[in-house]
Structure formats: C-alpha cells, structure tokens
TrEMBL record:
Catalytic reaction equation(s): beta-D-fructose 1,6-bisphosphate + H2O = beta-D-fructose 6-phosphate + phosphate
Species classification: Bacteria, Pseudomonadati, Bacteroidota, Sphingobacteriia, Sphingobacteriales
Organism of provenance: Mucilaginibacter terrigena
The protein's annotated pathway: Carbohydrate biosynthesis; Calvin cycle
SUPFAM superfamilies registered for this protein in UniProt: Carbohydrate phosphatase (SSF56655)
All copies of domain Fructose-1-6-bisphosphatase class 1 C-terminal, residue ranges: 200-330
Signal peptide boundaries: none
Listed name of the protein: Fructose-1,6-bisphosphatase class 1
Amino acid sequence: MKAVKTLGQFIIEKQADFPYAKGELSRLLRDIGIAAKIVNREVNKAGLADILGDAGTMNIQGEGQKKLDVYANEQFISALQCGGECCMVASEENDECIHIESEISKNAKYVVAIDPLDGSSNIDVNVGVGTIFSIYRRISPDGKAGLPDVLQRGTEQVAAGYVIYGSSTMMVYTTGKGVNGFTLDPSIGEFCLSHPNMSIPDDGVIYSINEGYYSHFPDGVKKYIKYCQVEDTKTNRPYTSRYIGSMVADLHRNLIKGGIFIYPLTAAAPNGKLRLVYECNPMAFIIEQAGGKASNGHNRILELDVTELHQRSAIFIGSKNMVAKAEEMMACFSPQRIKKNFEGEVCLQ
Ligand SMILES: O=P(O)(O)OC[C@H]1O[C@](O)(COP(=O)(O)O)[C@@H](O)[C@@H]1O
Ligand SMILES: [Mg+2]
Ligand SMILES: [Mg+2]
C-alpha cells in the first residue's frame, strides 16, 4: 500500500531545502490549503448552498462579482489574517491592497496576491473553476507593506500555485524547486501528494484559445491558429482545440497533457484580459518550473515590469516548443504594430 504523504508533511520535509527557513512560508502554504478546503466544500455543493449566481456587486475590473467570487475572497483573506504569516493581500476582487494590521501579522515576511475564484463564468454551470495565488517576500520596511511589495517582477515570486475545483480538487504549487500536485481526499480532509515532480511535455497537440474572438486577434495569432489546423501528420497536426474558459482548468490540462493556452490582445481587450499579478505571473512561474514557457508573445512574462495592481497582459503559455512557434509568428508583428492593427490600419501581412 503506497504511503500517503499529506501537503503538511511534504511542506515540512521540503523546508530542509531552504537552510534558513523558519517555517513562515510553510505555515503560509498551510493557511492557503485550509481556505482551499473551505471553498471546496461550498463549490462541491454550490447548487444547494445558495452560493450560485451574482452577488449584485462589481469589482474594479468592471466585472459583475459572483457570490462565489466574494465568498472565496473572504475565506482566503480571513485564513491569511488568522495565520499570521502574511502582512498584506492583493486580490482581484479588491480595488486596493488589504493590510493585515494584527500584532502577529503586521511585520510578517510575506505578501500574497490572489485570484480567489478563477473561471467565474463557469461557476453556475458546474464546470471546473480554480484559485490562483502568488507569494512575494515583503521588500518594504516593517509595518510599511504597500503597493511596491506586490508590483515586483514575477521573477521575484518565492512561491506560486493554484487550486482546481474539478472532478477532484487539487492544489498544485512551486517554491522554485519543481512543481508538485496534491489531491484532496475528502475522507481524511487532507491534500495528499498525487502528482510529484510535474513536468509539461515540450510538445503537445492541444491549442486552447477563445476562437470566438478570431476576427479581433492579431495576425500573428491568426497565423498560429491556421498553423495548428493544417493537416501534417509528421507534426501531429491538425492539433485539437480545447477551451474550458477557466484559465486554471485549461492550464492544468495542458500541464499534464502538453499544449498551449493563448489569451492575446484583442480589439475588446487591447491590453489583454488576464491580470499579470495574480493570474499570468503565478501561472508562468509554475509552467516554467515544469519545463514550459510563458510570454506575452514577445517577452517573458516573469520579466515584465509591473506598474499597476490590476495590470493586464497578453499570455502565450504551455509546452515550450509550441510557445516558441507561436512567438515566431508573432515576431512578424511588433506590439506597436499590433496596436496599430486595432486602430484599423491595414496590416502588412
Ligand atoms: O470568456 P473569455 O473571454 O474567453 O475569458 C475566459 C478567461 O477569463 C477568466 O475567467 C478570467 O478570470 P476570472 O474568472 O478570475 O475573472 C479566465 O479564467 C479565463 O481563462
Ligand atoms: Mg481569473
Ligand atoms: Mg477571479
């Protein structure tokens, strides 16, 4: 019988990888795991728990908040407040950063950026949703945590992860030493190591993009979609199209099977849709740690300058050879040219 290793046991064991570790990061990951279990409980019985539907409020993105967006946000913030290892939270659902003033937390070493519920458009229809988190070391002086702490480049993340609430619930995370996945065993209420040392294949046969916006895509993206659809058995094409509409679920599938996920600049979202701080940077850290690649079509996501909390970015992420191919086609079009393209100027293609 294979020994079960829980998330808590694994975290403590891995602490040895960090000679100066005092357990703060371990306890912070524990706190995130606790909130994930509470959210999972509600997601699993969402239809019965009066937690489906709209909350009737808008977030700073101008998006209508779902009841589960608000619930998940509250659960993660309160778990981080109780745990004492986080001095500030930046959330998709809050305009500004939330300072944790309690005595035990205000000088805590870490700040957390979070997308409490990812894939909100799928909540009411029982399709996989997730949570995305990113952890940075506070760079501001004691008690002075602020925006600069979450506007650090993605390369400065000390840990990142996601939770997927799917047919089973999993937590997948990295601390910069590989990627590991844990499946929640409801019978013991523990996340247990199920996917050690996850790695994404260098090549895949899945492309994931919302083709409904095709006419608004940059020509480089149109060219790449055409490339995916061409008949060529030598390169396993045509690839197959899969798009769930929850970034976590689309990336989790591609992490395991190989594939590329693209959310480019579009006419409707000229700066992209997905948010750099709590969606693109953490997912890029995980995918790179699994051997994949992540860019905005031109530049490495993790090296992008972060100037705003809810800043958006285009993202091309997944199997490294597939992302490289897409970048090759985007190279025909510099970001400036793409912008011009949206202003209706004829593309040189
Ligand atoms: O419906 P679209 O435009 O394809 O967008 C889907 C994308 O938007 C998101 O739902 C945005 O995330 P949130 O649900 O956290 O706002 C992603 O999960 C998903 O990849
Ligand atoms: Mg999201
Ligand atoms: Mg969200």
